[in-house]
Amino acid sequence: MSVDSSLVGAGATAPAARPVGWVDRAWAFARAKPLGAAGALIILAMLLVAALAQPLAPYDPYLPDYAAQFSRPSVDHWLGTDEFGRDVLSRIMYGARIALFVGFTASFAGCSIGGLLGVLSAYCGGTIDLLLERVMDVLLAFPQLILALAVASILGPAVPNVVIAVAIPIIPRAARVVRATALSVKENQYVEAAHGLGASHGAVIRRHLLPNVFAPYLIMLTAQLGTAILAEAALSYLGLGAAEPTPSWGLMLSGSAPAYAEKAPWIGLFPGIAISLAVFGFSLFGDSLRDALDPKLRGK
Known about the structure:
The chain is mainly alpha-helical. The protein is built from 14 helices and no strands. The longest helix is centred in the middle third of the chain and has 37 residues, at 88-124. The protein is elongated and about 80 Å long.
């Protein structure tokens, strides 16, 4: 049987497939989910502003300038000044740090604790599952912001307390989502095979359950980021978050903003736009990430 030498040479010299890098994946995601890419750009802009607030801010956000009180937006103060003469743009830039710190820390803590409880509840079953689910039901009985408000009222006004208050209502929501996925994974044959081969409970959870619930965990994490930022702004607005003179978006909306709504509307307008953009960006990115990671929605 003869073999065509040209085919052999072509196969030998065929270039190897180029590995798909993170840039290619990001570009494919941007083309498939343009709204998600827009949300990612908003998040990236917030991160850059927060990281470079000190060199980018035109003025000290803490330093009052009573000669420039209620200055309208101009070349000197692009977004105007507040009742103490502090530059609104500078305070918004520094306020992004608190918003992102509380948002990321509270979401990560709440989703991680909730995810672990969800996996434990699904894997153990029985009495442990029943008790954990009843605790989650009690927490879910309260609206998310109301529960955060109650916890913040008990702990007192401080940024670390805001993180705890915002994280606690996230725990039952993440636990429910992760538990539902873990229950289906638990019934797979490879989990039963791992038990049959003598694998310990910790090894089964670590090697089989946790990797399979990472996608819903990541979706919950991104989905709760915008909610956490909004909750932090609400708590600061009510006086249960950051305290003056700390630049916080919610704090900028309280106090002077309603009092001077007609005289200086920019004091409350621009922080409100910043909060809306942050929540909007995380919502867009979270929805697109859910569609990309969920096999049922991937083709839509």
